[in-house]
Structure formats: structure tokens, C-alpha cells
Amino acid sequence: MNILAIESSCDETAVAIVRDGRQVLTDCIASQVELHRIYGGVVPEIASRMHIEAIYGLADQALAQAGLEREDIDAVAVTYAPGLIGAVLVGVNFAKAAALALNKPLIPVHHIRGHIAANYLAYPELEPPFLCLVVSGGHTMIIDVKGYTDMEILGTTLDDAAGECFDKVGRVLGMPYPGGAALDKAAQRGDDMKYNLPRSKPGENPYDMSFSGLKTAALNLIHHAEQVGEGLDIDSLCASFTAAVSDTLVPRVVKAIEQTGRKKLAVAGGVAANSRIRADIMAAAEKLGVEVYLPPLKLCGDNGAMIGAQAYYEYLAGNVADMSLNAYATKSILGEAL
Ligand code: KG4
Ligand code: ZN
Questions:
Q1: Which residues pair with 266 in a beta bridge?
Q2: Which helix (H) or strand (E) holds 54?
Q3: Are 248 and 155 in contact (CB under 8 A)?
Q4: ω before 176 within 30° of 0 (cis)?
Q5: What's the CA-to-centroid distance between 135 and ligand 2, angstroms?
Q6: Are 183 and 173 contacting, i.e. CB atoms less than 8 angstroms apart?
Q7: Percentage of the chain exceeding pLDDT 90
Q8: Is the distance from CB of 163 to CB of 270 less than 8 angstroms?
Q9: Which of the four pLDDT bands, split at 50, 70 and 90, describes residue 337?
Q10: pLDDT mean across residues, the chain
Q11: Is the pLDDT of residue 68 over 50?
């Protein structure tokens, strides 16, 4: 089954064609990052306009690259939530038009389910059940993936997402948007013990997380150093900050593995590209004796292929939509009725 998959929830327009949920025939991305960089973050209105400009050409390019005709497409999939509403709407409207014109099923995909499914592309043998740590610019969650479309959220951030904090701290340090990757590079040169930053333990649920205190502490440290004219060891601040993020994530993942008894541990989302978090997760998995699944860097960030992968399993579960499909800025990964 060839699925044409559309992703436009943030600042990447992406169109991929994925066969049977596992084989990427083509994965085209038009990134807007450079455009948003001068503003230090994504400008939603610009994102929507750029998606409209890119999406038609990108879909043609995807077909050409895969060597397919429109008739070879068996279904159209699209990220319908969550994301910047104007941006998601562009993808949803394009997908609806394409499904209608081709007279093929329309498959709505939750963006975070897509991130998890990136692992199916990287690891053809991976099947649920497994535990997944989702760390992106907008989400930070520990999810028990019981089946391809059956998930339980064990814990979540109660305030900021991990990626949001990387970006905010990176911005204040003068790093180009999005700051995560640059901060990761700087951290590799630094001493992670040099600055003492908090690891918060919020609420009753041992799997819930909080990053806003850590973010504020890091920003205060930077501003204080500036005000008193104190030199700041930026590499070590980045290393100490990243260690605090990892120390917030990894012990909770370990606890979740121990409690659920899952034998497989996957990581997903843009922040899954972080070298320190990858290393700490690998070390933890080895200690626990579980298999670890880390998508290659290009599948960590937003892409269309991950949407095409999840779409196949949504289709098999009967999760298809009609022309009344809408876009949503927020929606739970648990997939309540459309
Ligand atoms: O999953 P994603 O592409 O978009 C969302 O769905 O949010 O994640 C983007 C996030 C950004 O916050 C970016 O700074 C972060 O992933 N990121 C990283 C790294 N590479 C990307 N954060 C830390 N270390 C990295 N190497
Ligand atoms: Zn994403």
C-alpha cells in the first residue's frame, strides 16, 4: 500500500511516500528554518504562507522521485494535530483535496504518533509493545506503546517541553534558532558538573516532569553573569543544562521500564537527536538489559515519512476520515473520536 503522507504542523513542509508502513520510497522536505531564524523563532503566519507555497510542488517532486504516477497512490495521510493551527490546516486541506481527487482514503495522523513511528522506519523488526520517550519542541512524554494505535501516557511535562527549553536557553546564549543542535555541540566541549542546576520532581505521578524551573535557573545564571560582568563558561553551562535535562528524563524512563516490564525502549522527537540524552539512554538500556531503539538524526526531527509509517497502522485499525476532517492545535495522542 503506497501512502502519500503530508506533514505541515510547524516549520517544515514535508511530503513522503511510504509503502506498507515500513519502506520509504521518497521523503521530501522544504525547511523554513532559515526564514524564521531572523525572528528567533517560528512566526506562525509566515509558516502558513510558506507551506501553501511549497506543498504542491513538493507533492509533485515526491511522485517524480518515487517514479510513481498519481494512480499508484493508495491513500493520503496527513498530520491533523497538534501544531500551529494555520500550518496544520494547509496540510489538512491539501490532503483532503488530494484524497478527493484521487478517490482514495484519507488517513488522519497525530503528529506525536508519527514521531514514535519513525522508529518503525529505522528498525523494520520493531513491533509494539515497547516503551517510548517522546522529546520534541512541543512535547515531553513517557508513553507505553501497547499496540500501533493503543497507547498509554505514563507521564508528561507539567509545563515546558524539553525542546522548548533548549531553544530558549540557546536563544539567550545567542545561538541560531532552533538552539537545540548548537547547544548540543557546545555541551560536548564543556564540563557538565561546573554549574549546579535543578532537577525538579513535580506532582504525585513519579513519571511527570517539569522543565520551567530548570529553564528559569539557567536564564537567571546567564543574566546574573552578564549584570555583574562575570565571564561565563558557555560550553560548561550547556553541558550542565543538558545533564539536568537528561537527569530529569532518564531515571523516569528507567522506572517506567521496571514497572511495565517492557523489553524494548524507543526514543522519538527532535530532542532524541541530542548526543548526551542518546548516550544516557543507551547506558540505561544496557544496565536494564532491554533493547534500545534510537532513530537516525534525520528521522528524529519533523518529516513526512514518519506520518506515512503511522498512517499504515491507523488505516489497518480503521482510522480513516471523511471530508469533514478538521485541523487541531492541540489534541491528545490517545486519539479520541474525530
Ligand atoms: O520534533 P521536532 O522536530 O518538532 C516538534 O514536533 O516540536 O523537535 C524540534 C526540537 C527543537 O526544540 C530543537 O531545538 C530540538 O528538537 N533539537 C535538539 C537537538 N536537535 C533538535 N535538542 C537538543 N539536542 C539536539 N541535538
Ligand atoms: Zn515534531
A1: 132, 293
A2: helix 44-66
A3: no
A4: no
A5: 9
A6: yes
A7: 97
A8: yes
A9: very low
A10: 97
A11: yes
